Amino acid sequence: MPEISPLGWFHTVIGITALVTGVYSLVKYKIIQLEHRTSQIYLVCTFIAAVTALMIFARGAFGPAHALAILTLFALVVGMVAAKTSIFGKLSPYVQAMAFSGTFLFHMIPAITDGLMRLPVGDPVVTDFKDPFLHSFYLAFLITYVVGFLWQVLWLRKQAA
Q: Domain for residue 1, yes or no?
């Protein structure tokens, strides 16, 4: 793994800040919504992390992490549109939850990949992107996202009733 550049460190700190505030928002409020200060911090940090990810080319070319950054930016736009307009009608709260929670999934995939490929220093847990151990994390994150989103749907329905 290449050394982490100053931009990489900034990206990492912003990403960790996003994850911490995102977890807090999800635990406390059950959902990431614009009304909550921690959600606002999460969304801003997520935006910055996605933009900075597009500037990091540690492996020399456009890669999966760049694609996830683009998906993150798209999800942020969709979530903001759902939160600020009625374009999705009665589905707006659900689209917002799906989009903003999706950004959390998009954070976790490169975070676990980079972490397991760098740590412990000198003897990383994973040395290849095709490692089944790494893929088991991806699957666990996807399952967690789907279950979490379904739980948010039920919670939103309860709030609407």
A: no
